[in-house]
C-alpha cells in the first residue's frame, strides 16, 4: 500500500452525481494518474472515493496545477462512468444522503447547520481538516434563503 500523501499535496475534489457505490471510478482515475506519472506530470498520487461515493478526492505531487488537457481527460473518465463532469455546485447531506444542488435547491432545502462538502479546497490537508463543514461555515452561506 502506498504511503499517504502529505497535507501539502495538491488536490481536486470532484462531486459525483450520482454517487459512486463502488471503487471503479477511483480505480479508472488512478490508472489515468499512472499515465500522468509516466508522462512526468506527477510523481505520486491518490484517488479515493469518500462520503458514500459523493466525493472523488484526487491528490498528487509535486505541487503543480494539472493542465487543461489533464482535466479534460479526467472529465472523459467521469463521463464514461456515467457521472456529470460538472454537477451542481453545492453538495449537502439531506435525509441521510448526499445531494448535489443548484442555488435554488440550496435555498429550498438547506439551513446553516446542513453538512456540506467543500469541493473548492486545493490542498489535501485543507480537505482533511475542513472538507466536511456546514453550509453556514462555508463559502455557500451567503446563498441561503434570507441571506443578504
The strand order across the widest sheet is 1-3-2
CA-CA gap between termini: 49 Å
The H-and-E topology, N to C, reads as: EHEEHEEHEHE
- Number of distinct helices: 4
**Number of E strands:** 7
The proportion of residues forming helix, as a percent range, comes to: 25-40%
Largest sheet properties = 3 strands, antiparallel
Shape designation: globular
The low-pLDDT segments are none
User: Radius of gyration from the CA trace?
Assistant: 16 Å
Which range does the strand content fall in? Answer: 15-25%
Mean of pLDDT: 91
Global structural class: alpha+beta
Short characterization:
Helix content is 28%, strand content 24%.
Structural write-up:
The protein is of the alpha+beta class. Helix content is 28%, strand content 24%. The protein is built from four helices and seven strands; from the N terminus they run E-H-E-E-H-E-E-H-E-H-E. It has helices at 24-38, 68-80, 103-109, 124-130, and strands spanning 10-15, 44-50, 55-61, 90-94, 97-101, 115-117, 132-134. The strands form three sheets. Strands 1-3-2 form a three-stranded antiparallel beta sheet, with helices on one face. A two-stranded antiparallel ribbon has the order 4-5. Strand 4 (90-94) and strand 5 (97-101) form a beta hairpin. Helix 1 packs antiparallel against helix 2 (68-80). The longest helix is centred in the N-terminal third of the chain and has 15 residues, at 24-38. The protein is globular. The N and C termini lie far apart (49 Å). The mean pLDDT is 91.
Keywords for this entry:
single chain; about 150 residues; two-stranded antiparallel ribbon; about 25% strand
